[in-house]
């Protein structure tokens, strides 16, 4: 079994205004990609700041590679891209990386070799000599990613690593994260880009109002009863009641379809084999069956349905 890269036990930050994080307990294994999700103001950045030792917890404890959070030893084991990054604008990208390398005790010869590689890796290879003041927001974010990797750490904490990037930049970051994962790095990712999280992460946690609502593997949290979508013509409301009665399944009207005066129905089956039987029932009632497809649950649907109806902090207050 691989070891634990990150542990948090009842980690709490109380800002004194009832906000922050409450009693968060999680573990992240070595080499795991862990997605930390939640609505604006849920407490994601606060939690990461405690783990990387930027703010002190009010209660609880945690470790990074077995070392207490906040300790120098813990700090040697990770790189961090903050949500609000800002680099010395009078320095060039290369100089910012040299500074970070020195702060991380990277040997000068190693830094000399690594920095051009890192600039290439994040797509700044041709702009390393330009001053940060000349960089766009997206370029600064790319520089931040390079800074997080400057000492080749086993763990990276990335707080919204693609928030300033255009779709091409986002694709680059997705690729970079995949590469980091393939290299065996542990990735702790705060992100609102749920499609990327779904592709990359092994497990996710969902935070709301400073507390964990759910933790699980991506496969587990997306596991649902088998849902199918059927596009049918000749639909009338009484047929829905009949279908439900005859099949004993939950069938609902989803929406009007764009084509052929038809509607989309959604059925929750007990297992996928029932679909042939349901199709036969639809046809038996004189409806026309145009299309049948399995509904794919996405992480964003899970996110929305998990926090729906709960109060949020932040933008919705
Ligand atoms: N220094 C602080 N003092 C007081 N309250 C704070 C402080 N920093 C954050 N908060 C509050 O704590 C809560 C959590 O903030 P945090 O930045 O951790 O959320 P988040 O989940 O990262 O949000 P987002 O997705 O918008 O980045 C918010 O209600 C915020 O207003």
Give an account of the 3D structure.
- GO terms for molecular function: ATP binding; ATP hydrolysis activity.
- Belongs to the ABC transporter superfamily.
- This is ABC transporter.
- Residues 6-234 form the ABC transporter domain.
- Keywords: ATP-binding, Nucleotide-binding, Transport.
- The protein starts with a strand and ends in a 10-residue tail after the last helix.
- It has helices at residues 44-51, 72-75, 93-103, 108-121, 137-148, 167-182, 194-200, 218-221, 237-247, 274-284, 299-307; strands at 4-14, 20-29, 33-37, 59-64, 67-68, 78-81, 155-159, 186-190, 203-208, 211-217, 226-233, 250-256, 262-269, 288-294.
- The strands form three sheets. Strands 6-7-8-3-9-10 form a six-stranded mixed beta sheet, with helices on both faces. The chain has a four-stranded antiparallel beta sheet with strand order 2-1-4-5.
- β9 and β10 form a beta hairpin.
- The model has no long low-confidence stretch (mean pLDDT 91).
- α3 crosses α4.
- Helix content is 34%, strand content 29%.
- The chain contains eleven helices and 14 strands.
- The chain has two domains: 4-217, Rossmann fold (3-Layer(aba) Sandwich), CATH 3.40.50.300; 226-294, ACT domain (Alpha-Beta Plaits, 2-Layer Sandwich), CATH 3.30.70.260.
- It is α/β, with parallel strands linked by helices.
- The structure holds adenosine-5'-triphosphate.
Essential attributes:
317 residues; alpha/beta; Alpha-Beta Plaits; 2 domains; 6-stranded mixed β-sheet; elongated; binds adenosine-5'-triphosphate
